[in-house]
Amino acid sequence: xxxxxxxxxxxxxxxxxxxxxxxxxxxxxxxxxxxxxxxxxxxxxxxxxxxxxxxxxxxxxxxxxxxxxxxxxxxxxxxxxxxxxxxxxxxxxxxxxxxxxxxxxxxxxxxxxxxxxxxxxxxxxxxxxxxxxxxxxxxxxxxxxxxxxxxxxxxxxxxxxxxxxxxxxxxxxxxxxxxxxxxxxxxxxxxxxxxxxxxxxxxxxxxxxxxxxxxxxxxx
Length: 220
Ligand code: HEC
Ligand code: HEC
What we know:
Layout: H1 2-19, H2 22-33, H3 37-41, H4 59-67, H5 85-96, H6 118-130, H7 150-156, H8 173-191, H9 204-214
Helix pairs in contact: 4-6, 5-6, 7-9, 8-9
């Protein structure tokens, strides 16, 4: 009986491996077992799913899913503008090769981490750049530097460039802004910062008003 249970357990484990994304499962396990797991967990927010990647079947998306979830949650190509990605990918590839990981601090958890080949890294970068964030053009939206643009300017350039308001419609923006608020709470805990007295507070209504004013027109 015991043996049979063990067999069933094994069967479930095999089924689990076959159906769950094996790369992501291994990465999650590595994070769970590492003393640095909590730190790595906070680098990028959870919730961005493989199926949300642009052209999920493309080579670039497949490479992102394979290599970029080994230490932290899945990165969204739209998080950064194209000019920002080369330096990030270069830094990440070094880490995957076992270099630049704060000396021996993280070396034990880097065991089993795979690095992309030269051509793979190239394809990865091209994919991220192609699906990158479009930065806001200050010439087009000078209001961003006026007091009425301040809430948006201060809050939304902490982790990436200011996004082009034309990316979403006025009805879509509030949900994106709400998600960014969650991202802020998640990622701030990496550094353990707490709101300090006198620090500007997040003014969500002002941010949404600014974005709505310049948002993409909804199709009628
Ligand atoms: C070997 C572990 C490891 C792998 C694999 C890895 N990263 Fe990272 N990543 C880190 C660490 C550690 C940080 C935090 C320190 C830093 O920013 O360098 C980080 C931070 C980031 C950040 C947030 C920093 C920023 O500038 O916005 C992004 C985005 C990112 N990685 C993207 C990627 C992409 C894309 C890949 C796949 C090409 C990848 N990572 C693969 C370890 C890794
Ligand atoms: C704490 C860091 C952080 C801050 C601050 C931040 N973002 Fe983001 N942003 C992210 C991350 C991480 C992603 C990728 C994951 C995602 O889409 O949630 C992202 C992606 C985006 C994207 C591309 C994805 C999409 O759905 O269009 C837009 C646009 C964006 N942010 C707008 C904003 C706006 C507007 C603000 C200010 C309210 C803001 N961000 C503040 C971290 C941040």
